[in-house]
Amino acid sequence: MTTPEFDVPPSVLIGDRSDVQSQRTQTILRSENVSPDVTLEFCPDSNGVLCGIEEVRVLLEKVLPETGIEVWALNEGREMAAGEVALRIKAAYSVIGLYEMTICGILASSSGWATAARDCVNAAGSVPVVCTVPAYAHPNVVPLIDYAAVTGGCVAVSSILGARLASVTPTGYMQHALPLLLGDTVKALQSYDRHLPLEIPRIAIIDTFKDEAEEAVNVARAFRDRLRGVNLSTPAERGGVTPGLIKEIRAKLDAQGFQHVDIFVTHGVNKETIRQFIDEGAPVNGFSVDEAIGGAPPLGFSAEIHEIDGAPVARRGRMPGITPSPRLDRIM
User: Fold this and answer.
1) Strands 262-266 vs 48-49: parallel, antiparallel or unpaired
2) What is the pLDDT of residue 236?
3) Per residue in 218-232, pLDDT tens?
4) What is the DSSP string of 69-109?
5) pTM of this structure
6) Average pLDDT, stretch 156-160?
7) CA nearest neighbour of 192 among 228, 157, 165, 160
8) What domains, with CATH codes, occur in the chain?
9) Do residues 12 and 105 touch, judged by C-beta distance below 8 A?
């Protein structure tokens, strides 16, 4: 993965997206002429996949001085344990204190998304997982979710900006709107084929008008070797996508000589449904995960001061001094 280009808006740099108390604390310390060097340690509240370190690095490069600071961190994408130090910053509190909550938020959200992605990827085993979250998240955060999903193991994402940030090729499947507006699934795929570049795989959606197995055979007969696969997201009102339905489609495609046609399951997929498909031997060639990643809860982080001007300190309930953390690497 190439170095991602995260955007840090001015409102973050001046603290307008952080807790107001962060600004008030800075105002008080400036007025009292107090600006000690501190060691801040950031730890997750639970086990998970670390994500957000690269975005934090971009922020820190903008706000920290070039000398007199140290930043140590686990590598992006590493598994981390609850309470383990994921990030350590040594700097004057006057330059880092304003961003304490912001850093926690970046790590919490990104690690939550990455951990949810890793759970789905682990459940899928060797079957690839794609992240398709634009309908389940605010557009301002979709690229960040996509980056986190790739960090968690997804092979691709569906948004253009997210793919660019994660250094992958955007991927996606035919929308129901196309066959509905053109009146026929085969006609929709023919139009898809005429107007889109050849490098885009020809994958037909097969649950719009007819029985899924029947429609799969119809598009396979029409496109033969040019058909890469079929995808389905049958709604719950029609019984949903089940392992039995996938097996039926696979059997009918194979019986017609279309063993090369892959089957992709999209919409409403999560780690539990993936595990069900895998455990029951359903011949799925790819899963598309949306809400299970885009709606994943944050993985909480806490930030604690462990040194002031080199002297060990801590609030009640925390151990004073630097926490032994052999897995950290210096990144700044």
Assistant:
1) unpaired
2) 87
3) 999 999 999 999 999
4) -EEEEPPTT-EE-TT---EEEEEEHHHHGGGHHHHHHHHHH
5) 0.94
6) 97
7) 228
8) 10-112+297-330 (3.20.140.10), 123-294 (3.20.20.70)
9) no
Place of tokens 């032994």: 324
Count Cβ atoms below 10 Å from residue 20 Cβ, excluding itself. 9
Q: Which residues pair with 87 in a beta bridge?
A: 42, 73
- The tokens for 34 are 């107090």
Picking from 182, 181, 178, 237, the residue whose alpha carbon sits closest to that of residue 204 is 178
Taking alpha carbons only, the member of 144, 156, 30, 20 closest to residue 93 is: 30
Element (H, E) at 43: strand 37-44
Beta carbons within 10 angstroms of residue 173's beta carbon: 22
- 3 state DSSP class of 117: helix
Instruction: Return the pLDDT at 268.
Output: 84
Cα 331 from Cα 52, distance rounded (Å)? 14
Instruction: Return all residues near 127 (Cβ < 8 A) that are at least 6 apart.
Output: 274, 278, 284, 285, 286, 287
Q: Cα–Cα distance between 272 and 295 in angstroms, integer? A: 15
The CA-based angle 87-88-93, given to 5 degrees, is 125
Q: What is the pLDDT of residues 18-38, one digit of tens each?
A: 999 999 999 999 999 999 999
